[in-house]
Structure formats: structure tokens, C-alpha cells
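Page 37, top half.
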Amino acid sequence: MSVGAHTLREIESQPQALQDAQQTLSACGAQVVQLLQPAPRVLFVGCGSALNIAFAAAPVFAITTGQMAVPVAAGDIFLYPQASIEPGSAVVCISRSGETTETVQAQRTARALGCRTAALTAYPDSPLAQEADVAIVLTGSQEQSVTTTASVSAMIHAGTLMALQAAGEDSRLAEAGQAIEVCKELLPRTRRLAERILEEVPFNKVAFVGAGPHYGLAREVQLKFKEMTLLPSDAYPLLDYRHGPMSNADSQMLLGIFGSGPGEALEDQLAPEMEALGATTVLVSESSQPQARRRYHLSLDSGLDELLALPLQLPLFQYLAYYTSIRLGYDPDHPKNLTHYVQIEVS
């Protein structure tokens, strides 16, 4: 088997992973609604990529339902519970393996404090799934690579579906299935653009920006680069990049921009400013309006609601991290110092 074969296969399995999320949420939607709808506050909790999923899912939930929703690092739930948990909170604990120590402990702490919990995981027999009030098990997200790719996209999609179910948005739920077909059509075009960027752009550091739930995507792809390539990589809210980080912009910087509806005009200001400093910008957005034209631009042309299209913005940078890793002589299936999940002693 070639180096990185699992990661590449999993990046390209995203349509199936999205379909699995769709089918799973259709089956357990009533339980999810019963748990989340009455809660005055919903906490989305995780570590690593799962925390990045939380940074996407929480704003999606708040935007869609009008309920308070916040992302919280799993360790903070049991180290500083008073900072985030209030009576009646619902806690969504996210972990591909369902074995991550901090996340399992966070769920136990939340339950001990009277919160109802949902586990979003890939393994039904894991402690997280077994101990939750509701287990949302995406078996199609069981990956062989240490690096998470398709599972992240599927769990972000699941988060949006949960929000739409809790809000009673039946018409938008009916639209959700289109994301699967769009993803199938988009992947070959996405892969070609990633290959082109790698051929044409000499970069040795990366940064990513996004607004609202797109910031969760920015965090996730910077982690993919950090894991797979070991290159310096950062993520910032869209408008924060000028507040210090742009001091690092030069001819070796690749800046990825996650396009959003509300932020479109501001994204179109940022990109040429950073290009004037020497950086290469890569924009992923829904459409290719004239003002959004960049040298490297992936236009989704999905026709989907912005929140349903979130997972479609990830594959370009997953491919780019994968190919960069191979070019640098690493194995993206087995990132340096990492394992499938983290277990530690927690007293």
C-alpha cells in the first residue's frame, strides 16, 4: 500500500460519510430534539479536531435555533465547570473514537452536574456512546488514518442537521441531501486545484481565516497542516488577521480564506491587501462573483444554504495538506508523535 493511502481514500470518501450522517440523524432526530430543544444553553465539547467541529457546530446551532450555544474545550468542563455549565444545559460531546479521556471525563462531569448529554462519535461501544443520554453514532466515520478528514466533514454536517431538527426547519432539512451529490461532483475539481497550487506556489507556512462557523473550518485545516506537514500553521477569525498576524505575510505565506455570505465584501478587501504583501491567497466560496476573483479560487456553485455547504469547503485544504505532506517526505496516515486518540490520567 502506498504512503498516505488511507488518508487519500478517506478524503475521497466524504460523500459516503455525509450520507451516513444524514441517515443517522434521520433515525435519531426525535431524541436529539427532545434533548436539545428545551436547553437554555447547549455546549459543544471536544479536543483537537473535535473541538474544531464544536467551533463550527455551536454558531450554526445558535444561528439556526436562536438558543445560546458555545464551543468548550473538554478539559475546561471538568477543570472549570462553573465557567460554562448552568442548570439545564445540554452538552454535546464530540469524539471520533469515543475514547478520548478529557471528553469522556467532561461528559461524566456534565452528567454529575445535572446536564443531559449527547455523544457524537463513530463507535457505538465506546465509553462516550455508552454513557450518553443520546448516542449519535456515525459508523461511516470510522477511519484508519490517525488524521481525521471525512469524519470531521460528517460531524460538521451532523451538527447542522441537529440544529435544523431542533429548529423545526423541515424545508432546509429536505435540502440537506443535496450536499452529498454536490460533494461527489466537487471532489475531482477540488483535487485538481490542490495539485495546481502545489505545483505553482512555493510556500513554507500557512494561515487560515473565517468568520462565524467558518472559523471552525479555519481551525481544522490549520490543524491538518500542522499534523501532516509540520509547517507553521495558524487560524484566526476573519478580521483578526490584520491585528498582528499579517506581520508574517510574505512570499512564503499561503493564506486560505473561507468565504461566507456576511463576510464576502470584507474577504474581498483582505485578499488583495495580503497579496500586496507577497502572500498567496486561496479562496473557497459559494460563487465566483467578479469582486471575489482570485488567482486561486474554488467556487462551490452548490446552490445550498451556506450552513449546509460548510463541509464542502474543507476538502481543498485537506487535499493540499495531504499532497504537501507527501512532497515533504512524511506519511499523512501516521503523523509524527500522534495516535488515534489521547488517553491520560485524570484524577
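Page 37, bottom half:
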Amino acid sequence: MAVPERVMTNDDISTFVETTNDWIVARTGIRERRIASESESTMTLGAKAALAALQMGNLHASLVDLIVCATSTPECVFPSTASLIQSEIGADNAGAFDLSAACSGFVYALQMASQSIRTGAIDTALVIGAETMSRVLDWSDRGTCILFGDGAGAVLLQRSEQPGGVLSAILRSEGKNAKFLGIPNFGSHDLELHHEAIDGHKLGKMYMDGQEVFKFATRVLSDGIKRAATDAGVRLSDIRLIVPHQANLRIIDAAARQLGFDKSMFYTNLDRYGNTSAASIPLALVEAEREGRIKRGDHVAFIGFGGGLTWAASVVQWTGAGAVPRRMGPLQQLEQLQASAASSLRRLRRRYGSLLNRIRPEEGRVDRLRRRMDKIEDLE
């Protein structure tokens, strides 16, 4: 996982939006979130998380066959953020593409990668959820700006003859309800003229009908877990931990009641990171594993829901770290050394740039947001 160093608390937000820490905590469970600095981006966070996953799996990037990056905040329209990550980490033999399914994106990407392995097309894949949601927020909209944060998480998948891994995945979409959550972007001209979901919303900024999304999420969360367990051939009682999309604590509590589970069955860290969209499940997964909440052989359920409106659920049997060895000839070894050197040089240049930014301190983001809100009030 990788998260920005900068922390924005609820009290920070209350300095430029009419809200309070108690109000946000009571309605969402969120206390703070991470905000990317000028030198951080979806790519840099995703690359850092990917390298950490490779290190945990003791595998060199040159042996990765496929990189799938789930994101709603790509580095640019194209090339894909996955391609930029592929270059950054030195995975020179990998194909790479982005997947857009909003907050469900990580589970979608996990299924795409696991199916590619099952067909025999590839042996090894990196699945990344990476977001810089702070850059698509309307910071004057209290309904959205209090919810989201930045971060990235990654998992490594490999072919193995041992039982375990991804046992089931259910992917669903309710496009008829797309109007409740979105980010209008370039190419939306026709939609802006003819579609009520776009009319009146800021280009490149998120909008959300919170009540409708809440109703959707509470409806699909428990149902999705039940379906994924059935498809995996396991009972609900066999599931050791549920790692849900970290959107709102009230949604998770409602799902626990519907399933008859204690709240402790659901791993949550949204109080510290907020809603990181496609990054939220892998971020929570990493921390759950570090805390010893997941052991080898455990059945773990994932459930994501978000823009589309999409939802996706999966059950995996945890196999833990430890890559399957792959033999390399002399040419492959040379290519690995070259890729490592090039990747290290790129990262060194980036760190040098970050160091310069620290030597020349810039004003904090909270201060800039406060001044921006003051300008808006002056205009009004």
C-alpha cells in the first residue's frame, strides 16, 4: 500500500466548509484522510504500492506478465496509468491497462487478472487500485469533499497448482442509475445537453446523490457477499473476514445487521483514510494482513460498490506471500538487470524532484483551499 504523508482532518475541512468534526464522524465514521502533494499522483502512489507487493512476493518486476490498474482518477486520458506504472517499476515484459468501475474497480480488476491466469494466457499479474480523489472534488460541496481521500493498494497474483486464491467473483452494473454518481469530463457535450445527470454539474468534478447511493449500497452489500460465498462453494460461517469498500461506516453496520454478523467481521480503516474509491479494498486488505486478521487458508470476502452504479463481490482463500519460482535464462537475467537500473534511475530522479520541493516549501493545501473558498464568497 501507499498513502500520501499529508493528513487532512475534519477540523481542517471545517475551516473552509460549513461542517464540524462531530457531524462528519456521526454520519460517516471518517476522522481524517490523506491528500496527495504536488509531487504525488495516481501513478506514483500506484507504483509505490506495486513495488511493495512485489517485494512481499519476492518477485522481480520483469517477471510480471500483466498490470491492471483500477482507477477513476487516471494520470491522463491516455496513455494508461498502468502503462506509466509499468515503466516506473521496470516491468518491461508486462502488458498494462486501466480499468474504470469506480469504487468497485479493484474487485473487477482482480477478476480480469485471475481469469487471464486461469486461461493460461499469463502466469503473473499485478492488480492495483490507485486514486487521487482530492483532485476531482468540488471543495465547496460539503456532500462530497468530506468523504474522499488519496491512496493506492496492490496485490500480486500468480499461477499455482496449490488450492486457494480467487474462488469466485460477481460483477454487476445498474447503468440506469448512473445519474446518481459521476464526474463529467471532456467528451460529455452531448450528455450535458440531453442528460439530466450532467446538466448543472461542474466539468471534471464529482457529484453525488448521497441518499440514493446510500440506499443502493445497503441493498447490494449483504446480497453480494451471500452470492459470492455461494459461487465459491463456502458457507457464510466459513468466511473469516469481510473487507468492504470503505465508503461509510453506517453502510457497513447495516450490512452486518442484515447478515447477522458482529461488526468485527468487517475490517474498516475509513476513519483514517476516508473513501479512497478503487484503492479502499486493497488498502484495508494490506492493513488487515499486517494486523494478523488474515491467516493462510482463511476465506476472505471483498465487496465493492460505486459509480456506474456498479457493485462487485469476491471470495478468496488467502495463500499469503511467497512467489512461485520462475526460471530465467542468461538473456532474461540481463534484461532484468537493465530494467532494474532504468527503474531505479527514474525513481531517483523523482525523489530528487521531491527533495527540491521540500527545500522550497510551498503553502499547504488546506491554506490554498481556504483562500479559494474566500474568493468564492467574495464573488457571491
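Margin note: The chain is about 40% helix and 20% strand.
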